[in-house]
Amino acid sequence: MNISEGRQFRSKAAGKCLAAAFFVTANFAIAQTVDGESAISSMSPLERSEIEVRANDKINAMLRGRTFFPGQASPLIARSRLDPKTNELLVDLGEENGLHAESLEMEDLQKHITEAASHVLGSIDGWEGVDLRFGGKDMYFWFPQQRPAEDLVRPAAATDDAKASSTDTIVLSAGHGVYYHEGYKKWIPQREVFFSAREDDVTQDFVAQLNQQMIRELWGRKRQKLEVVLARSLSSDIHEESGRPWRDIAGRYRIKALYPDIPELWHSRPDNQGVDNERIEDMYSRPALANHVNAAASIHIHTNAWEPETRGARFYYQKGQPESKRLASSLACHVREVLKSRPEFPDYVVDAVGRTGNYAELRSAKMPSSLIEIGFHTNEKDAAAMQRPDFRKFAMAGVRKGYELFRAGVACDPFKVTSITNISTFGSTISLQATYSGTPTFPVYLELGDEFGNVTYAQASSPAAPNLLEFDIQCRRRRAQVKFVGYFDDDDYVLTKKPFTADCWGWMGG
User: Fold this and answer.
1) Is 112 helix (H, G, I), strand (E, B) or coil?
2) What is the pLDDT of residue 221?
3) For residue 389, what is the enclosing H or E element?
4) Exposed/middle/buried for 100, CB within 10 Å: 0-12, 13-18, 19+?
């Protein structure tokens, strides 16, 4: 997503430990359990009033003296109140701004308001986000055609055999891209560059990585089948109209090339004569494509913008859609655990659960959908991380598993070793057992390294019993480090530590 036009912003080495340790690396997630949806409703009226005043002050400090969209009734003044029934902060911007409720600029403003409010409400369990009002009315008073479906439950296959033979279609949408501006009479990107990162380009890098992982799963060990549809092309071939690589071009034009005879998919606003009409149509073309291909889910990747110190990944879903909420929270859960466990990114901020949003890419989708803001390109650390291939691999591994477990109906649960017995024994082969919780991706490998740098491996292709891992390991001489590694095409990407000692003496003696 973006800031309002014209707004300005400020700008391995790993030490070796002699003590043996047990590390678990796997494709898993632990999320903060947030079941406190009654937290706001259980507050006293006085407590809610105090929070409302603080949140309102933060929001109005952000709004003061700024113009966010053409035709804005100036100055913008917010009036905020907590709704204990929905656990949302209702922010009223005045009836005079209702005619702008559908604009993409208003979507960006909602993001900014949410970030401002999160300084006060972010730590409250059950807070669902911000819902905008205009003179007490929501956007659908002015734009009833934009009202989304209330729920999107896609029935699961009745049997395992049916699941094995069924194929899910998932739409992956990289945010923005180059479009034709009628005023400038040229092709331009939708976003500006911050810290060498442009959202139009960075989002393509993330989708390319996610697409690769999704396709590998299609031909890999999982029974679930996937067909991936991309809203934007990843091709380096030249788009003739613009003279630029297809990879740079916004989704509207790819969808036009795929479906030239269905203009309602990519030319949804024929009566709009605005200079940036094709930018607006681009946004609406993404869910239109997902609806057309009868997708099981759609995932939209963006980068975020706010004050320079604000960091982290956000996961949005459309209000009133429990399945979209479940998807967003599953994605958040698994991205959080993958990134939080990596020594390369120990302080990367990731929301524990999804947030409500009211965005064009989500409203008209007829399937569970989530919009991911993977980081803030206006923050130097986030921008640097998002330009690293390893960060993209780890983050998208979390998205892939989050979707996988969403479809399987599995709640977020930590993969962790709950118990393991220390070993001190003779013999070249040792049987090692460990109990675990969560949902690792099998096979899980145990890596055994000794103090001389020698490494051997053992494999658990499936649980030996419910929540039990069992390995036969070749033990090297003297004290060793033991590591569980869960692989995805030979790339381990989640690490969790549990103290463990393996004192083993093989045939060479101690």
Assistant:
1) helix
2) 52
3) helix 389-408
4) buried
Domain assignments of the chain as residue spans, ordered by start: 42-139, 165-408, 416-505
Task: Report the pLDDT averaged over residues 438-458.
Answer: 72
In this structure, are residues 25 and 495 in contact, taking their beta carbons and an 8 Å threshold? yes
- How far is the C-alpha of 325 from the C-alpha of 333, rounded, in Å? 12
Q: Would you say how long the chain is, in residues?
A: 510
Residue 140: is it exposed, middle or buried by C-beta count within 10 angstroms (0-12/13-18/19+)?
A: middle
DSSP-derived secondary structure for 83-130: ETTTTEEEEE--GGGGGGTTSHHHHHHHHHHHHHHHHHHTTSTT--EE
CB count, 10 Å around CB of 377?
Answer: 30
Q: Which residues have C-beta within 8 Å of that of residue 181, sequence separation ≥ 6? A: 187, 188, 275, 276, 278, 279
215-239 pLDDT tens trace: 875 444 554 578 999 999 999 999 9
Place of tokens 């409720």: 101
Question: Which residues neighbour 58 within 8 Å (Cβ) at sequence distance 6 or greater?
Answer: 116, 117, 119, 120
In contact, 15 and 493? CB cutoff 8 Å: no
What Å distances lie between residue 224 and 125, 160, 168, 405, CA to CA? 34, 10, 8, 11
> From the centroid of its chain, how far is CA 148?
21
Q: Residue 30 and residue 199: Cα distance in Å, rounded?
A: 29
Q: How far apart are the first and last CA of the chain?
A: 60
* DSSP letter assigned to residue 156: P
Residue 222 CA neighbour count, 13 Å, CB half? 23
CATH class in words for 416-505: mainly beta
Tokens of 277: 């009409």
For 165-408, CATH gives 3.40.630.40
Task: Estimate to the nearest angstrom the gap between the alpha carbon of 497 and the chain centroid.
Answer: 25
Mean pLDDT of the 158-185 span: 81
Q: In 10 A of CB 423, how many CB atoms?
A: 18
Query: Do β-strands 355-357 and 314-318 pair in parallel, antiparallel, or remain unpaired?
Result: parallel
- pLDDT, tens digit, for every residue of 264-313? 999 999 988 899 999 999 999 999 999 999 999 999 999 999 999 999 99
On average, the pLDDT of the chain sits at 83
The answer to whether 460 and 421 have CB atoms below 8 angstroms apart is no
Q: Does the domain spanning 42-139 belong to CATH 3.40.50? A: no
CB within 8 A of 433, min separation 6: which ones? 420, 421, 464, 468, 469, 470, 471
Rounded Cα distance, 492 and 13, in Å: 18
